Amino acid sequence: MTDVEVAIVGAGFAGIGMAIALRRAGIDDFVVLERGASVGGTWRDNTYPGIACDVPAHLYGFATHPNPDWSGEFAEGAELHRYLADVAAAELDGGRLRLNTLMQGATWDAEAAQWRIELGGAEPGVLTAAALVLACGRLTEPRIPAFPGLETFAGPMFHTARWNHDVTLEGAHVAVVGSGASAIQVVPELARRAAHVTLLQRSPAWIMPRGGRPFTDEERAYFAEHPGELAARRAALYAEGEARFASRSGDPAAAATAAATARAHLRAQVENEALRDALTADYAFGCKRVLLSDDFYPAVASDAVTLVTSALAGVDGDTLVAADGTRVQADVLVLATGFLTLRQPYAALVTGEDGVTLAEHWSDGMTSFASTVVPGFPNMFVLDGPNAALGHNSSVLILEEQAAYAVRALGARPGYPGGVLRPRAEAERQYTDEIAQAAASTPWMTGGCRNWYVDRGRLTLLWPGTVDAFRARLTRADGSEFATATADASRGEL
């Protein structure tokens, strides 16, 4: 006997989205395990000054839970945290949510045909489940490079995802390492508070105008009274996002137009030619994540910020040493250095058939079928894992499609509600080849940059197509990706 039909690990967008899909399918026997004290994932953990989403708010939410009360066209981090808490309160009743509960390990029990999940935290013990959904997130564990001498830094030091709000910034010289999405949001805020900010930039980003404005009370009231308007707004934003795929994926005309817009944005906001050159990306548009900001360039161009166009090479007490030899003294060190995306930390905790861990299966880069199921790991689904990220549209849309696929697969199990789904290794190989062929000529592979989408020469994080294409691909999955009863002994091989 199992304790629950489905165990979901993680209560961010992915985990809550999976719970919504299960409930809509009439599957109520599930539990959501969350290591934190509240739901929210990325939007709970990241509280740095200036944090906001760069996807329009009315698209960055669940289709089943439209929100008429967004404060503006783009939502701030705290708003998104509240939104997820509200959705969880509506969907995770009846004790389905277990906070402060860690997955310390998960092992497939072949004899019992179930997952044994070792729990720590508030409710230690063992939970058994027929199916396991890993909704652990991709941006959960901060990446802190091993800078020589980092431990010698005398002042406060923290990652943007673990912001220390007890540190006084007023009157301080703050150094920021990194120039990605978090850095371009936090630097303008620091420039307003600190005595001075030094930004160590390894490589500049392509930055587009952000725009956006607050909604009035009247507008929010109108949205609440006219749900059809919210649906129409979401559809329009979706179409705009899909149209952006061409410029991100290397369409020559679309990429040229977008790059020209980004360059014009830089010229309009930075008068100094030398500084403009230092902030101009030297790789193909779309090769890295394209960023949105209207206040980063003015901040860097102001007297409040000094730009060092070199990566951090080491730390010597209160002095940061850049690769070009520049030395910077700082009182506070902020690491905007990204996350462990290519090697998911949870993968080492999950053991499938034959004693192989998910980390071992992914040792040459993450792979899957349908970006969701993995050979050797029966009745397991990974949300927001291999090739499930987007660079042009809302990632929530991908999560909703993965959850829908998982629910279809669970409902089609032989002997439902029992039965075992064993993904075939050949199905994974074919899907991996499809990804490689679709990505081969894109800027992510050929654009001349180092990005976090590629691992060991293969696109492992990004989906190389539109959301429409992802939905169509998962819809085409007809169950043949799973081994039949006669092939069970081969552990997923044909």
From TrEMBL:
GO molecular function: 4-hydroxyacetophenone monooxygenase activity
InterPro entries assigned to the protein according to its UniProt record, in alphabetical order: FAD-bind_Monooxygenase_sf, FAD/NAD-bd_sf
Keywords, sorted A to Z: Monooxygenase, Oxidoreductase
EC number: 1.14.13.84
Pfam families: Pyr_redox_3 (PF13738)
Keyword Oxidoreductase found: yes
PANTHER family: FAD_NAD(P)-BINDING DOMAIN-CONTAINING PROTEIN-RELATED, L-ORNITHINE N(5)-MONOOXYGENASE-RELATED
Protein name: 4-hydroxyacetophenone monooxygenase
Natural source organism: Microbacterium terrae
